[in-house]
Amino acid sequence: MYKEKERLMEEDLHQIINSCNYNGEEEEQGDPESNTLNQPLVKANRTLSSTPLALVGTKVSHIESLDYEINENDLFKHDWRKRSKTQVLQYIFLKWTFACLIGLFTGLIATLINLAVENIAGYKLLAVGHFLAQERYVTGLMVFAGGNLGLTLVASVLCVCFAPTAAGPGIPEIKAYLNGIDTPNMFGATTMIVKIIGSIGAVAAGLDLGKEGPLVHIGTCIASLLGQGGPDNHRLKWRWLRYFNNDRDRRDLITCGSAAGVCAAFRSPVGGVLFALEEVATWWRSALLWRTFFSTAVVVVVLREFIEICNSGKCGLFGRGGLIMFDVSHVTYTYHATDIIPVMLIGVIGGVLGSLYNHFLHKVLRLYNLINQKGKIHKVLLALTVSLFTSVCLYGLPFLAKCTPCDPSIEERCPTNGRSGNFKQFHCPKGYYSDLATLLLTTNDDAVRNIFSSNTPNEFSMGSLWIFFVLYCILGLFTFGIATPSGLFLPIILMGSAYGRMLGGLMGSYTSIDQGLYAVLGAASLMAGSMRMTVSLCVIFLELTNNLLLLPITMIVLLIAKTVGDSFNPSIYDIILHLKGLPFLEANPEPWMRNLSVGELGDAKPPVVTLQGVEKVAKIVDVLRNTTHNAFPVLDEAEVPPQMGLGTGAIELHGLILRAHLVKVLKKRWFLTEKRRTEEWEVREKFPWDELAEREDNFDDVAITSSEMQMYVDLHPLTNTTPYTVMENMSVAKALVLFRQVGLRHLLIVPRIQASGRSPVIGILTRQDLRAYNILQAFPHLEKSKEMNPFLLFFFHLILLLTQDFPALSLRFSPSQPNLTLYGDAFFRGHTISLTQQQPCFPSPSPRNCSSSGIGRALYVYPIKFLDLSTNTTASFSCRFSFTIIASPSCPFGDGFAFLIASNADSFTFSNGFLGLPDPALDPLGSFVAVEFDTAFDPSHGDINDNHVGIDVNSIVSVASVDAISKGIDLKSGREMMVWIEYSDVLKLIRVWVGYSRVKPKSPVLSAQVDLAGKFREYMHVGFSASNALGSAFHIVERWKFRTFGSHPDAVQEDDDWLVCFENPGNTRHRYGLDVRVSVVGLRIPFWSLLPGLAAVVVLTAFIAYSLIRGKKRIVCEGVGLNRVPGRLSLAEIKSATSGFNENTIVGHGASATVYRGSIPMVGSVAVKRFDRAHWPQCNRNPFTTEFTTMTGYLRHKNLVQFQGWCSEGTETALVFEYLPNGRTSVDDA
């Protein structure tokens, strides 16, 4: 699997990031040179990162998301209510009118392009043929190459200097736009004009490019310009156009335009509709299907009329072809059983070759990105170089082919040196033709007609077909990506038809299918193998060839080719989307997204910036100036009826307001002198609803006086009161499907439990937050689980189940599974346990040394073995659980909550409050260990405050405690918290991690040296306890995992980079486990009895691994830069980079290393960290190994100075990083 994670911009662009820690406070990022040299160059905090830049055409542009959701604010609702039936009918009529105009203009422009290409290329070929007839071959080459260079120069200069977004096919950007990504300048008038002229020049120049992709782009440009009333600088302001002044309707028009473009390219109306549905559109409905079909029907009518005119000879050199471009309907054939084998073989070959083409084209495009970064001149020179190479090959290779005598039985003229024809004479004597010149020295359309020609089994020799196939494979790779309009359809058709015809020739008399039809099937298979289209491609080929008999075998070929291609890499358009850095949301979420909730995703982002319903101007200005967010939740104090029990201070979510609307308010200076809500008429007088559809986000033009800063703005009328929201426990996979299918820009995360004083919105998800690549930067462990072979994982767990002494642990609480014993106030609450219940509370609680009240406990029903009496060995343990503390309205918090290991399950009766822990005075023979999460302050028991974490051993006075707030954790926040507790008997160490995410934090919040060897009895009870005392709160436990281990410390250091020097005890300890999902005793099976089964597992696993290694290879590429995989470097390379570790290249010193600045070819500037063995710590670790392990585990961490390689030769050890003296990355909202 590819692991390239390219940068999302050119080398001369500097990325900017706002890095936030867990509690949302901004954190300074220092110069990498100032890092402590014996520490890894990586930050511990995880934050979702993104970039606002992507390649649109060949231009690096700032991108945003589109608002496909209807903004249901008060202005929209009022306008919708007052619309008359006439206005509704007018709106519908305009939609159909635009659909008609899109088809009309697309058909006219397609005809113009076809006429221009045929005439320009035709006169060029006639001139070349004139010199060939006179045997002036060098002059012919100069004319041919010179003409092609001139046409390429025009197309390239126009794209480079006037419309960079016109380069390429445009289809990936169209897919991105319909997916919800705004692609600037993609559909403007200048782009369309350059696309038209550039397509004519590039195709007429004989480049291995098609006009099909550009025609799709041109169709969408026409649709966009019609919808917005013309170019940006000269837009019509007609009132009826206001209905289409929104992203939602513009999306429908662009979908119609893409279908019309395919129809104009292939004269395939149904194929065009299906192409829009299958390939480019993300959102679809039946009304859009009808209008799209209407557009393609208009295109066909226009093309038909012009074809009739051209058939009368009024179009110059334009061909006399009909509406069917490559008609093979006159060929009749029958199927035989033997024909299925070569048909299936064509599909397999098409899938393999299509995947290879995608793979190598991806490499070439990355190389071209590096060349294009050097400037406009390099882009033009690259295009001219490709044009010159193409011209020399097209003109020179036919000299290698043998001349073939003309068949006197054929009716067609042979030979000919005209601009078209199936039998080009070229350099051959009279009565002979050059089959290779027939394919090469012509236009691409004529080349397809020639190779598709039927009843010509001997026209093309096998050698000529091989030359043609290899040449167009090379040209197809190196031509696409230059700075000209280009399409992929025709180059792929030419390559596929060549190998299809070769296979037909090899079959010979063993098949009844004509070689021309084999060429058609080959072209279809390669397109399916590269583009991964099936239904639309099948219909396009049927309409291209006008032969319905091809339908069954075409369907078989397409399905096989797509299946084979999908086993290796994505489609070519998906690869280009990722390479350009466009944040496209795939239809199917990654499987590991089911393991992550949106609440955890929101925790990895900075805190939400909210506004009040009536907000101060100064606050709005501050928010706009210091953030780049495009929407802000609007909160209000809620008026809640007393019977709801939420108490005072409740907050309601009024809605979501866009940044553009805030800027509009400031520009219009719609300010209030007092804090009040406005009347409906005041708003309508100032803001027409259609005016709010404009993207007005240029805040720099707004000048606000100091007096205006103290005024107020009523945001209620402009706020979308119906934003889409999701619960914090919804999986990311489910949220992604919702976000994509509805076409959202923002998705609000709301808490699962609403409580007084708690914000009703805890996060906002944008497009960038839901991208797999960005999520993996914040949660790198998910990538490991994603890459795990499911079959190997299954067999691994099977072996563990059969060999370990006790089963593993897992817990989901349920009354139907009686594996827990509940005491006191504890009760099942769905699939969770609440240890306490709400109770009446006193307004002024007295000290806590009162009689027992509100105590609850939940213990596992069976005791767990913690001490092996035969060896006097104490077990280590590891525990993970989640809990929530929710206070009652207007009541103080209870005592708190504790994880408890106790020797006496009945010690509950001796407890005297205090988190429900045992009282040693009442139970002197008992023993317990607890980790407390205390929410009440009692100085008499050593409490440091009312929000702390502590470790208790046989006493309610903690042996160690820490202020939770200082660690970014608020036990009273009402949020679900994850806890990890680990005890190592070898290290005599207890460590506690607490976080809001299910990702284990890097550093524990509490770590204490505690020897539990004398505290544990042979069997102990494990569970939780809590108490309310005079307060009132729910103490809820939601998930729990627990396991005991032997003494080896490796067992408790997984998922952690905390290092300590220790001596290996050298003896093996027992592992103890607990399964609280089913209450069973572990299995003990003799190892020798497992040998036959293990042997079978090994053989089967090896076979599956071998099959998967040869199977699917999925490209994951982000951005537009070139990424070098870190590797081992020689000492000579390191010394060469640093001029022999020259002192002048030193940029920093540390305790165990020195950093040098250097330069390595293909990498650029690097920082070389050279380690000094004399200063290594005296233990079984070294700084080089420690840092190397860390860096290889986080190669693409968002705050990581990029790791480039390492060196370890003799006594020299060094790590090589990318040198970024002011390097920062960027975070932005979509």
From TrEMBL:
It is found in: Membrane. ATP binds at residue 1169. In the N-terminal section; belongs to the leguminous lectin family. InterPro entries: CBS_dom (IPR000644), CBS_dom_sf (IPR046342), Cl-channel/antiporter (IPR051280), Cl-channel_core (IPR014743), Cl_channel_pln (IPR002251), ClC (IPR001807), ConA-like_dom_sf (IPR013320), Kinase-like_dom_sf (IPR011009). Residues 719-783 form the CBS domain. CDD domains: CBS_pair_voltage-gated_CLC_euk_bac (cd04591), ClC_6_like (cd03685), lectin_legume_LecRK_Arcelin_ConA (cd06899). Pfam families: CBS, Lectin_legB, PK_Tyr_Ser-Thr, Voltage_CLC. The keyword Nucleotide-binding applies. It comes from Brassica napus. Keywords: ATP-binding, CBS domain, Chloride, Chloride channel, Ion channel, Ion transport, Lectin, Membrane, Nucleotide-binding, Repeat, Transmembrane, Transmembrane helix, Transport, Voltage-gated channel. PANTHER family: CHLORIDE CHANNEL PROTEIN CLC FAMILY MEMBER (PTHR11689), CHLORIDE CHANNEL PROTEIN CLC-B (PTHR11689:SF155). The chain crosses the membrane at residues 91-117, 137-165, 186-207, 283-303, 315-334, 340-360, 380-401, 465-495, 548-565, 1087-1109. It catalyses: L-threonyl-[protein] + ATP = O-phospho-L-threonyl-[protein] + ADP + H(+); L-seryl-[protein] + ATP = O-phospho-L-seryl-[protein] + ADP + H(+). This is Chloride channel protein. Residues 1141-1230 form the Protein kinase domain. It comes from the Eukaryota. It is a multi-pass membrane protein. The keyword Ion transport applies.
